[in-house]
Structures are given as C-alpha cells and as structure tokens.
Automatic annotation (TrEMBL):
Pfam families: tRNA_edit
Protein name (record): YbaK/aminoacyl-tRNA synthetase-associated domain-containing protein
Entries under InterPro entries matching the protein: YbaK/aa-tRNA-synt-asso_dom_sf (IPR036754), YbaK/aa-tRNA-synth-assoc-dom (IPR007214)
Organism: Streptomyces formicae
GO MF annotation list: aminoacyl-tRNA deacylase activity
Gene3D superfamilies xref list: YbaK/aminoacyl-tRNA synthetase-associated domain
Amino acid sequence: MIPEKSMEMPTAAFRRLMSVLDGSFADYRVIDHEAEGRTLRASDLRGHEPAQAAKCMVVQVRRKAPTEHVTVLAVVPGDRRVDFKKVRRLFGGADASLADRAHAERITGCVSGCVIPFAFDPGLHLVVDPELLVHDEIYFNAARLDRSIALGTEHFVALSEPRVAPIAR
C-alpha cells in the first residue's frame, strides 16, 4: 500500500528540493515512474544500477545518557545496507538503530520510502558513504514515490555538504 501523503502534488519537501536544485543550476533530471519506495525496484524502474541509488535511512544514535540522542540521515549505495555499528562509532554513541517512523517523517519532511539525501532540518546530521560518490550520477526518490531525481554527484556533494564516512556494509 502506498501512503497517500507521498503522492501529494507537490509536497513541501519536494518543493524545497526543486528550489535548491533550480537555484543552483545543478545538473539534474526529473524521472516520473510508477510509485515505488523499495530501492532495488525503484532502480529498475529508473533504469540504473542499484549501486547508484541513494538509499536514505534515518538513524537514531543514543549517546551515553539515555536522553541524549543524535538523529542521522545515513545514505548508502542502494545495493548496500547501513552498518549501525559504524554510525554509532562515528557519533560516539552507545547504541544506534532506525529512528521510529513518525520521527523520521517529521525530521525529513518525507514519508517512509521516499526520504531525500538532503538534511534541511538542523537537527539532522547527513552522512554519506563514499562508495555512493564514485558514480558520475546518483538517483533518489524526490520526496515522492512516483518521482525521482538523477543528479550529478559533484553537484550533490556541493549542495548537500555531507559528512563522508564509510557507513555501509
């Protein structure tokens, strides 16, 4: 079942993303396709290798004190998985796990399955695995399940200013 919110035309996150891309003269393309949130299937619909897909996972890192948390937007190649131990170590945490769905959707402005690899909320720390950045172009859902972006990797790095660290397994 596809969440209705992901099909709104346009979502606030989609508008903000497009504003950033258009305002920067970035090298990008919009790809319309069947609604899909699963990375491998979306890669197939868009016609590229899964390794070029930016798989975005919102991770909650618990620090030493039980009430201290850091929220991380972990971005890995679509054919890889987030290594929670690596994310935990990167942020000096005691534990790391997927953020609960409501928190992830609130902090990203996107419904599950179409989170974009941009951290527009100051409380969200963007970390990208370097293996994603070896490609000339990356692909990701554009805050909607039925629309994606193909973006030049150099432009992605310049616009998103991610922390680059090995977080995939």
